[in-house]
Specification:
Elements lengths: L1 E5 L4 H12 L3 E6 L10 E6 L5 H8 L4 E4 L7 H7 L8 H16 L3 E5 L13 H9 L2 H15 L4 E7 L1 E3 L8 E3 L8 E3 H13 L6 E6 L1
Amino acid sequence: MKVLVVGASRGSGAAAVVALANAGHLVTAFARTAAPRPHSGDVRHIAGDVLNPDSLAKAMIGQDAVVVALGISENPIAVRLLRRASTPLDVRSRGTAGVIEAMREAGVRRLIVQSTFGIGGTYASLPPSLKIFFRLVIKPQVEDHVRQEELVRRSGLDWTLLRPVVLNDDDTAAPARVDLDDRVDSWKVSRRQLAEVLVAAVEREGWHGQTLSVSG
């Protein structure tokens, strides 16, 4: 499949590019700084702003599926204290809205979006330390995740939402736990593990219209 990864320069997006390419998909890595990264397979790198409709429209041509892994790279405590970041705090919802519009115009149906565990009813399941972190440190980002998920559910596309727990860069090869009923096995999961779930979501029709909890 031809898969566009939005937010591909680092973190989960970069891991998704590698995993998708290794699985044999033709990947377009879209980010403001889309520098090539090690991979096997076919990857096209496009530098563009997700908030620019023209850039998205050009990247969307010929795609079969889209993975959205937008986020803010700066330390969340610094962002909260300084109240500024190099990326807008509402990039997830605004960027996803642009992606949805571009997909509609290009006739692309399959959408996979990374959100976070702790949104909606899953907040009650968080340990106390994470509840405090969500309320006091990343409240604006959490609110943006909520708006993002609402946009995805109302999109009319063949969507899947992924809600990983706390992400890390461990190089574990163990598979993640994927659950449709908001259950998790632990409070950490690696980006590599999440990337493999993103690949499965691209390929699996049974996950259309589903929200998946992903844990290590």
